Amino acid sequence: MKLSLADSLFAIQNYQEALSLYEDLLTNDEVYSPAMLLKMAFVAEGMGDYSNASFYLAKYYDQNPNPRVITKIKALTEQSNLFGYELDDSDRFLKFLTDLQEELTSVFSILLVVSLILLVAFRKKVDHPKYYFPSILFLLLTFISNNFLFQASTGIVTGSPTLIMEKPTAGGKLLSVVDPGHRVIIKSSKDIWYEVNWGGKKVFIKKEHITKL
Q1: What is this structure's pTM?
Q2: What digits encode the pLDDT tens for the residues 150-208?
Q3: For residue 106, with 0-12 CB atoms within 10 Å meaning exposed, 13-18 middle and 19 or more buried, which class applies?
Q4: Quick one: which of 145, 180, 173 has its CA closest to 73?
């Protein structure tokens, strides 16, 4: 209902009220769609809020990787090089699997139950370890799918400037100073710091300078 109202307001170009409803859906209800994120980026850009516009586009990119989105974020942040948006075939395949995580877990669980039922039904004829292999395989696949198949936590650099540190301390070695727009994979959290992947290396950035996607 709220999303329909926001879409109606957007359609009649009542952008600020539409954005307010969209933000409420995103922040409080944790409900959003790719189309909604694009509309939010459009309104934020029109208002001159390039930081939030970049955030909405980066969140959209997490759901729908598209080179044109990167080009737009570069234009908004006035940067020619942005880190964290590179995707190879393995990344795309992993995203495909994580998108289907619930379905895969359900399928493996059903196959596990069927295999166990067959083992019980034909227990007198099951006289070799090989007959237990399907059940063991489906058990492992169900466990892996349910516990390890999830999308990595990501964030976008929003602080200006943002310091990239070698260790989670202000006295650590300063590795780089960057502007907003870069996308990072968040590995863990420690006090006021996020441990993130930066160019294949483990580095630390203050939480206040990263907005989680």
Answers
A1: 0.69
A2: 777 888 888 878 899 999 888 888 998 888 888 888 888 888 999 998 877 889 999 99
A3: middle
A4: 180
Give me the count of residues in the chain. 213
The alpha-carbon radius of gyration of the chain (Å, integer) is: 23
Residue 83: what are its φ and ψ, rounded to 5°? -90, 155
- Would you state the structure tokens that stand for residue 80, as one six-digit string? 């020619």
Residue 200 DSSP code: T
User: What are the Cα distances from residue 37, in Å, to 59, 63, 155, 183?
Assistant: 8, 10, 15, 17
Model confidence pLDDT, tens digit, residues 43-58? 999 999 888 898 899 8
Q: Which two tokens stand for residue 60?
A: 């959209």
Q: Quote the CA–CA distance of 105 and 114 in Å, as a whole number.
A: 14
Q: Beta-carbon neighbour count of residue 55 at 10 Å? A: 25
